[in-house]
Write a structure and sequence with these properties.
There is one protein chain. The chain has helices at 22-25, 33-40, 55-70, 94-101, 118-131, 155-158, 207-211, 221-242, 260-269, 281-284, 291-299; strands spanning 5-14, 19-21, 44-46, 79-83, 108-112, 138-145, 163-173, 178-186, 194-195, 218-219, 252-255, 308-315, 319-326. By secondary structure, the chain is an alpha/beta fold. It has a five-stranded mixed beta sheet, with helices on both faces. It has a four-stranded mixed beta sheet with strand order 8-13-12-11, sandwiched between helices. A two-stranded antiparallel ribbon has the order 2-3. A hairpin with a 3-residue loop joins strand 12 (308-315) and strand 13 (319-326). The two termini are 28 Å apart.
Length: 331
Amino acid sequence: MSKITAAITGVGAYVPEYKLTNKILETLVDTNDEWITSRTGIKERRILKDEGKGTSFLAIKAAQNLIDKNGIDPLDIELVIVATATPDMKAAATASFTATEIGATNAFSFDLEAACSSFLFGMSVASSYIESGKYKKILLIGADKNSSFINYKDRATCIIFGDGAGAVLFEPNHEGLGVQDELLRSDGNGREFLQATYGGSSYPITADTFDEGKHYIFQEGKTVFKNAVFNMADVTERIMERNNITNDDIAWLAAHQANKRIIEATAKRVSLDLSKVMMNIEKYGNTTSATLPLLLNDYESQLKKDDKIIFAAFGGGFTWGSIYLKWAYNS
């Protein structure tokens, strides 16, 4: 019996219709298109404006897109993981509602939260379940409604984040394709530099903290930027070294879309030509848990069986890591 590896066999995505462009942001905060583009690479981001619709709406849409594209019976799905930093509500898992709404009623489900590394860590979890031999169809969704905790008077954060969702299906593979290796890390000392403090159990929201806007996300930009550049590049380089992969071997680098300069710095560290770097940050901004699956969806038509892809991400917590995967199919 050949070794079971966990391969991605399908992708799907969804982004809201409304485009929050840099020109519109110029009317909301003291900023301009040139300033935003030169520092982040972002031109626009999608925003879910419908009242009462949260992350589950995005997740359901992305999952349905994958199911329709690949002709999957939802009843065959055995596990649904929603990687997210913005769950619909506390206690009730967004994944459970998502699974029920897409008809995956035979599946168990749970949320996974590691900020911008959520989807990457979810890839590790999903692949481990597949490799165990116990499960054959696992739906991993990365979805975030970041606009729900953004202060649109704070130019340090409102220019960066957008809403969106992407989904992938993991299935067993016996050709040695799929996830090959992973290197995942975290450091709790970093949480003071990127978080939404109020609203958690340590600091519940009160009328006063709400009025003061303390439930919005906060980040210390320079510290986050420095750590993201170093750590994403470091794990990318290390996972290449320990798998004897050269930059000529790599078909694609799929890096978390937080800032174009961070992505370019990661590629430069491993001497990888930018033509091999997946990039869509200009269209969506930072969609947190959704960046990696949105990349796969946008680039799916260019992916070929046996392509070597390096995934890398960095997020609040701090959390970061890299995964080496061999693509399993031709589009």
